[in-house]
Amino acid sequence: MPFTVPVPPLPTPRELVLWAEQRFTTAGLVFGHGTDNARDEAVFLVFHALGLAFDCEEAVLDRPCDAAGVAAATALVDERIHSRRPAAYLAGRMWFAGLEFMVDERVLVPRSPIAEIVERGFAPWIDPGTVRRVLDIGTGSACIAVAAALALPRARVDATDVSADALAVARINVARHGVGDRVRIWQADLFPPAPRVRYDVIVSNPPYVRDVEVAAFPPEYRHEPVLGLAAGADGLDCVRRILAGAARRLSAHGILVVEIGGEAGTIERAFPRLPFIWVEFARGGEGVFVLRRQDLEPLPGPAGRHRRRR
User: Fold this and answer.
1) Which of 39, 59, 91 is the last residue of a domain?
2) 269 with 145, same domain?
3) pTM for this one?
4) Residue of 273, 264, 214 lying closest to 236 (CA atoms)
5) Segment 257-279, tens digit of pLDDT
6) How far is residue 92's CA from residue 97's CA, in Å, rounded to a whole number?
7) Which of 35, 67, 91 is the last residue before a domain boundary?
8) 38-50 vs 67-83: helix axis angle to the nearest 10?
9) 73 and 215 belong to one structural domain
10) Same domain, 197 and 289
11) Which end of the chain, N or C, is surrounded by fewer C-beta atoms within 10 Å?
12) 257: which strand partners?
């Protein structure tokens, strides 16, 4: 029978976090859905159970919890261990670009480094003041679409997803953040059925996981919708189609921003003459490229390669 760490008597929030961390470590959980270690995962769930803000005063962490709070925290910790569901699904929420979003198993847990780019209004690759239309491909929870609408208050945002289930969550988040007048939801496979519309920014965190990697997922990742992750033998199934169609949908000064995870080398070999700009992030993360419309139309031929970082 697995060893179970007992809950301290009359625990404080600090003691509950340390207890949860020890249990998560002992259980050998896998992280990666907004946290990358047992301590941060413990803080996330214990604070959620106790109704504490992450920036609460230090003194609060050393006051004994009431019985209801302890029961709620221990139940969440037990559920995390036994079900292996990501903490964001257990809490029903996750943050992106400083904003809180409702999430469940119908959508991926928001965690893209694209948040940093959205917060800057997609500068320096485009002047935020000139952005009037944005397309978010594969919107999921609508975290990118909503964050873009709030960062660019003069822009209209179209958000697409092929999954009706995901779009149900997206609509909740659009309404919750009060941007329904500027964010339009489409059920579509990549591009919306409005071919004459030109976008200043097309942004996407599409599926980019290779089939062999999907087959080897730990239990935590199997709770996420595979439709939002799996992208064929080399992980480029969706990205190839985005590259093929983006130029026709971009304005003259438009940019394409796409996350490709660990497949930077793969896509550079597949499109050796595209001048990918690989974004460097202050808060960590990699595998996001930027291309300008003139880079995509006409699509460059097979010779030569240019790699830029910014």
Assistant:
1) 91
2) yes
3) 0.92
4) 264
5) 999 999 999 999 999 999 999 99
6) 17
7) 91
8) 140
9) no
10) yes
11) N
12) 203, 290
